[in-house]
C-alpha cells in the first residue's frame, strides 16, 4: 500500500470510529467538463455523513520533500473543490485532512495559519498511530449533530 | 535546458521586449520562517519594473500530465505569494504567466475562468514561439505607465 493510500485508509477508519458513515470513496465530483474525482495528480476525496451533516474530505499526505509545495497544491485543490461542491452539492462541507505531525510541524507557523484563515480552509486533524480524529478546526460540535 | 527553465527564459525575453527592466531573477521572497524563493518544488519568480510599476511574475510551465493538478499548485502558490508580497513589498503586483497554448486549451474553460475571477488571479499570457507578451488579463494599459 502506498503512503498516499495509507493516509486515505487511516482517515476513513478515524471517521468510522467517530460514528461517521462513509457514503462515497472516492466521491464523484464534476466541474463543467472536468471530472475532478478521476484526476491523476490529485488525492481522492471521500464523503461522509453523520446525522444529517454531510462532509467531503480532501486527504493530503504531505509526502513530497517540500511541505510548502504540497501546501500550494492542497490549497489550490481545496479552493477548486469547494467551488465545484457549491454547484453540485451545496450543503456538503469540505475539510482538508492533515496528520497531527504535519499540523504541529507546519500548519501552526504564522504564515500558514494566515493563509488557512484568509482562505477559510477547514481542517480535520487526525492521529496516524491511533487512527483517530484529534481535532476539527474550527471546532465542530459533534455532540449537537 | 529543462522545459521549466525554457519557459522562464521565454517570459524574461518577452518582458524585456516589452520594455520591462528585469530587477530580480529569482526574486527573493520571505514569509515568516519560509524562504519562498529557494523552495524546491515551486517555480521561481522574477521581478520587473517599468516606469515606476513593479511586478512579480510566477511562471508556470504546466508540464505535468494533469493540467488541473498543475493549476491547483499554481493557484495555491499565487495566493501564498500574493500574501507574502503584501507584507514584504506591498506595491508590487503579482502575475501568473501562462503560455497562449495552455491559456486557450485550459484557462478559457468556464470552471477555470470562475476560479481565476473569484481568486483575483492576474494573468500574463505569452507566446512561446515569438517570445512576446500576448495579453495581460485584466488588460494593463501599458501606454499610460
Briefly note the CATH topology name of chain A.
Trna Endonuclease, Chain: A, domain 1
What do the pLDDT scores of chain A average to?
Answer: 91
| Oligomerization status of the protein chains | homodimer
* C-alpha end-to-end distance of chain A: 34 Å
Order of helices and strands of chain A: HEEEEEHEHHEE
Rg of chain A, rounded, reads: 14 Å
Poorly predicted sequence stretches spanning 5 or more consecutive residues of chain A = none
What can be said about this structure in brief?
Two copies of one chain form a homodimer. Chain A has helices at about 5-15, 65-90, 100-105, 110-120, and strands at about 20-25, 30, 35, 45-50, 55-60, 95-100, 125, 130-135.
Report what the structure shows.
2 copies of one chain form a homodimer. Chain A is an alpha/beta fold. The first copy, chain A, has a single domain, classed as Trna Endonuclease, Chain: A, domain 1 (3-Layer(aba) Sandwich), CATH 3.40.1350. The first copy, chain A, contains 4 helices and 8 strands. In chain A, a hairpin with a 4-residue loop joins strand 7 and strand 8. The first copy, chain A, is globular and about 35 Å long. The model of chain A has no long low-confidence stretch (mean pLDDT 91).
What is the strand and helix layout of this fold?
Two copies of one chain form a homodimer.
Chain A: H1 3-17, E1 21-24, E2 30-31, E3 34-35, E4 45-50, E5 53-59, H2 67-88, E6 93-99, H3 100-107, H4 110-118, E7 123-127, E8 132-137
Parallel strand pairs in A: 5-6, 6-7
Antiparallel strand pairs in A: 1-4, 2-3, 4-5, 7-8
